[in-house]
Amino acid sequence: MARPLSTDEGGLAGDASWGVEPAGGKARRHRVLLVEDHAGFAEATAILVRHHGLDVSIATSGGDALKLAEECNPVLVLCDLALPDMTGIEVVQALRVRRGPNDFLAVILSAMSANDLREIEAHINSEITLVLPKPLTTPILIDLIARLEALRPSVGPV
Description:
- By secondary structure, the chain is an alpha/beta fold.
- The chain has helices at residues 39-51, 62-72, 88-99, 114-122, 138-151, and strands spanning 12-13, 31-35, 55-59, 76-80, 105-110, 130-133.
- It has one domain: 3-Layer(aba) Sandwich (Rossmann fold).
- The protein is built from five helices and six strands; from the N terminus they run ββαβαβαβαβα.
- Helix 2 packs parallel to helix 3.
């Protein structure tokens, strides 16, 4: 059963599970920051991400993402291209300045067609790991998790 997306007064839709060590002393799971202004899509994506063993925090705007990233220290940022206050590319650029060029994987998600996304991708610099069409799929998420595992020492604490 899906949990409703709840936001605080500032528009942050957090999840208390980030940064918490699972019972039994197991290592922490990878932390994901999902930046999505559409509640239904955010919740569906968060369910998929959690199903694959990742902790996810949700921000509903670019400004909220920058604040929440300071708290949750994500190793993967899944960011909508079109947000109410800034673009997903601007969010990633601001996070790279704050956190370093190799501190996390950055994926831009968009409802644009694959052809339109390829055109955008051609103009994006190395700050963006991938540009993908919505919705995020299980095979793509599995690939991202494999990348996180391969980069684990260099993408920050998990």
